[in-house]
Amino acid sequence: MKVQEGTWETCDNTERADWAELREYHARKRSVALRSTLLLAGVAIVMALRSPLMGLDLAVGGGCGVVNMLLIMRNNERLLDGRRSRGVYGFSNVVRVLGVGVIPAIAAITGPVWTLAIAYAGFFTPLVSYAILLRSAYRRGT
């Protein structure tokens, strides 16, 4: 009787787990973008009834915030996939901050100083929403 030497092949489920986590990540990303857009649009409409400038500043800030969140995530995905070098990653982040982050500030320049706070409240709402949703997902263990 011949005995064949070799190694045991293990069959782990890491690829399936990675795909499941990736699907959850993309679903979470879409969910936060949609929820933030709907929330900010509703609040901006209510604010616009009181002061059209405040509503516009919140809408512009919120729109830029959703775009900013999606660009951050896309840039991080490309870096992790190896399709982007660290130098290009850093440069594109600077361009993103200067391009998308300054739009609410420019919109708020036309009004009182406090409108800048309203614009940036809308700008950071999607990121805060994503952080809260991710924290609850970690607590659930999913």
Strand and helix layout:
Elements: H1 14-50, H2 52-81, H3 86-100, H4 102-109, H5 114-140
Helix pairs in contact: 1-2, 1-5, 2-3, 2-4, 2-5, 4-5
Radius of gyration: 22 Å
Largest sheet: none
Helical proportion, percent range: over 70%
Structural class: mainly alpha
Mean pLDDT score: 84
Name the features.
mainly alpha; 82% helix; 142 residues; 0% strand
Could you please describe the fold and organization of this structure?
The structure is a single chain. The chain is mostly helical and 142 residues long. It has one domain. Helix content is 82%, strand content 0%. It has helices at 14-50, 52-81, 86-100, 102-109, 114-140. α1 packs antiparallel against α2 (52-81), α1 (14-50) packs antiparallel against α5 and α2 crosses α5 (114-140). The longest helix is centred in the first third of the chain and has 37 residues, at 14-50. The protein is flat. The N and C termini lie far apart (49 Å). Residues 10-14 have low confidence and may be disordered.
